[in-house]
Here is the input.
Amino acid sequence: MKKRRITFNSPVVLTFVIISLAAMGANYLTAGLSNKLLFMTYHTSLASPMTYVRFFTHVFGHMGWSHYISNMMYMLLLGPMLEEKYGSRAMIEVILITGLMAGLVNWLLFPTTALCGASSVVFAFILMTSFTSFKEGEIPLTVILVAVIFIGQQVYEGLFVADNISNMAHIVGGIVGAVAGYTLNKKE
Here is the structure.
C-alpha cells in the first residue's frame, strides 16, 4: 500500500488563508483594534505610511467568522487551480494589484467607508477562473455570462440592497481578475 501524505499544494493561497486566520484571531484578541490599525483601509492622511500599508493588508482582515469562512471557502476552491495554472508569482501579483486597486478606489470615492476583507480578491479569482479555457481569437460564452451576471448582481445590490458589503470592491476585483485572466491566457 502506498503511503499518503498531506502536501502544501498551493503555497500562496494557503499562506493567504493562514495570514487571514491570524488577522481574524488578532482582531478578536484586540477587540477590533488590529483591524483598525492593520487590516482595514479607510480615508486617512496620505502623509501616514500606514495608509499605504493598509491599501494592501485590508484583504487579510474580516469582520467576523462568517465573513472569513465565506471568503476563504472561495479562495480554497478557486485559488489552487489558478495557482497551478498561472504560478505562484502571478497569484501574488493579482492579490497585490487587487488589494491596491480596491483600497485606492475606496479611499478616493468612499471617504466615509472602511473596507476590509478578501472579497475583492475572491471576485478577481472568480473572473480569472472563467478565462481558464480562453483561446486566442475566441471569447468563451462562460466569460460573457459570468461578467454580465456578476456585474448585474453587484450593480443591483449596490443600488437596492442596504448591507455592509462593498459592491465596489467586488467590481474592482472582478475587473482585475478579468484583465489578469485575459492577459495570462494570452501569454500561453
